[in-house]
Design a protein that fits this description.
Blueprint: H1 11-19, H2 22-30, H3 40-46, E1 50-55, H4 63-72, E2 75-78, H5 84-87, H6 97-108, E3 112-120, H7 126-129, H8 133-150, E4 157-162, H9 185-196, E5 201-206, H10 215-230, E6 236-239, E7 242-243, H11 253-261, E8 266-274, H12 279-291, E9 295-300, H13 326-337, E10 363-372, E11 375-384, E12 389-390, E13 392-397, E14 403-408, E15 411-413, E16 418-422, E17 429-430, E18 435-443, E19 452-455
Parallel strand pairs: 1-2, 1-9, 2-3, 3-4, 4-5, 5-6, 6-8, 7-8, 8-9
Antiparallel strand pairs: 10-11, 11-18, 12-17, 13-16, 13-19, 14-18, 15-16
Helix pairs in contact: 3-13, 8-9, 11-12, 12-13
The chain binds ligand G2I.
Length: 456
């Protein structure tokens, strides 16, 4: 089993990891980030989520654009620059310049990156559009392998396959050159992606899958259930959530999110925009995500209305002049009021969210390992005891030959033998009986790991 709760990296935490100065880190841990509660990313991070946006590379020279981007968001999706036609314009000639620019902009500022997308019937390069059969299958798998390898360690989640299901009442697959290579093309893509980047979460991403009663939603649900049952490496499902008059938000959206989550995958809202940007609809979407423990975060598909692929629908959170809309205020308020119940949603908490006192009831840590030949990913769950935690330390002894190469959502000392892990700025405060997660990737063999946890 892979992680059950996404802990998006807050800017403060990542800046901290980069600095690596213990004294500075202790000071930072003591206080919440200065922007907590006042920006989308910081407020989402306080709820263990991220708040992201699609970014168009050519806009990074627009300072009005980057001012909002850098202030508000802690997750970035390349709007077009990681698509197949952008990254492999000629067969076996890969082009990463535009995508790398976005990745570097994001990561150098402590934002994480979602990869979009490795395999799609649309936006294929011309050479691929005209291919079929086993040659196309091989070309697609090579593309997945090459691109996921290039961005290995830099992309936290990939839309491995995008929009593979048909609209309408069939609930089946969309016809495409990729689909005609055989129904197993999707799982083949996921396996190739896992092999290339074992640390990235692997998502299936689609639109018009928001309404639980729609055949397309059920078709994707059945595929994910089948993948989980057969061990196909899928970690998450992306709900694009382009809401408009023809495809409106519906109140069963929360049921959709929680039903998929119950299959054992994370769910993410990946391309949110809402025709007319109703504040109450935006609020509902945020509340729905916060009500589902495995809803990791929300990405809006652009910053200002003028940045939208549907600009005339004014569907985003900022006006074309960069000012905040009512929908922005609604989203921020929903993030700040939100709670993080477990799945299925439980009764609302009776106490308002407060800063917990230092923990006295200890904590426990459990680990789940995804081992492959030569390496593994470990996801560690830290659970507070009878008192809230205000900081935690987990100790994990690694068998000889195991070496940590990469980690997330915790500070580490040691990469072999006894390793010690402490909370980062955004996940040290854990309510009584509540949990948070961190993880790491390592070379070698995990064997059976026995983490121990202490409060503080
Ligand atoms: O169509 C909205 C989204 C639906 N889900 C998948 C997303 O990848 C998709 O994004 C849109 C981008 O927002 C558009 O910007 O995907 C379109 C098609 O890839 C993008 O449009 C393309 C135009 O079709 C091209 O002509 C143009 O060169 O944008 C390109 C770059 O501006």
């Amino acid at each position: 089993m892979r992680s059950t709760r996404w802990k998006a990296a807050s800017r403060a935490a990542l800046a901290l990891a980069g600095a690596g100065a213990l004294a500075a880190s202790m000071a930072l841990f003591a206080t919440a980030p200065a922007s907590a509660g006042t920006t989308l990313g910081a407020s989402a991070a306080e709820k263990g989520r991220y708040f992201g946006t699609a970014v168009a590379g050519f806009k990074l020279s627009d300072s009005a654009y980057t001012t909002i981007l850098n202030r508000e968001f802690n997750m970035v999706t390349a709007e077009n620059e990681m698509k197949m036609n952008a990254t492999e314009p000629q067969q076996n000639q890969f082009s990463y310049g535009a995508a790398d620019q976005i990745v570097n902009h994001a990561r150098s500022r402590g934002m994480s990156v979602r990869g979009h997308t490795l395999a799609w019937h649309s936006q294929q390069p011309g050479w691929m559009e005209s291919m079929s059969g086993s040659a196309l299958r091989q070309a697609m798998l090579n593309h997945v392998t090459q691109v996921a390898t290039h961005f290995r360690g830099q992309v936290v989640a990939w839309d491995v396959v995008n929009e593979a299901f048909a609209d309408g009442s069939s609930g089946g697959r969309r016809d495409s050159n990729l689909q005609r290579t055989g129904n197993d093309w999707i799982e083949a893509a996921f396996r190739a992606a896992r092999a290339a980047d074992p640390g990235a979460k692997l998502c299936y991403n689609d639109y018009n899958t928001d309404n639980w009663t729609h055949a397309k939603t059920q078709g994707v649900y059945n595929m994910v259930r089948d993948f989980k049952a057969r061990g196909v490496p899928i970690d998450c499902v992306g709900f694009q959530s382009h809401f408009n008059n023809d495809s409106p938000y519906v109140s069963n959206y929360r049921t959709t999110l929680s039903s998929f989550a119950a299959l054992g995958v994370d769910v993410q809202i990946t391309e949110l925009d809402i025709q007319g940007a109703s504040a109450s609809t935006y609020r509902s979407v945020v509340e729905d995500c916060l009500a589902v423990a495995r809803c990791n975060g929300i990405t809006v598909w652009g910053i200002r209305d003028s940045d939208s692929w549907r600009a005339s629908q004014t569907p985003l959170l900022f006006n074309s002049n960069g000012s905040k809309k009512a929908a922005y205020d609604a989203v921020l308020a929903a993030l700040n009021n939100g709670t993080t119940p477990t799945d299925p949603p439980t009764d609302p908490p009776t106490d308002p969210p407060t800063t917990p006192p230092p923990g006295t009831g200890g904590c426990t840590a459990t680990v789940s390992v995804n081992q492959w030949n030569g390496g593994f990913v470990a996801n560690v769950r830290v659970t507070a005891g009878s008192s809230a935690l205000n900081g935690w330390t987990v100790s994990i002894g690694l068998p000889s030959g195991a070496t940590v190469t990469n980690a997330w959502s915790a500070n580490r000392s040691g990469n072999t033998g006894t390793t010690n892990w402490t909370n980062v700025a955004y996940n040290g405060q854990v309510g009584a009986g509540q949990s948070t997660e961190f993880g790491f990737q390592a070379n070698g063999t995990a064997g059976s790991l026995s983490p121990t946890c202490s409060a503080g």
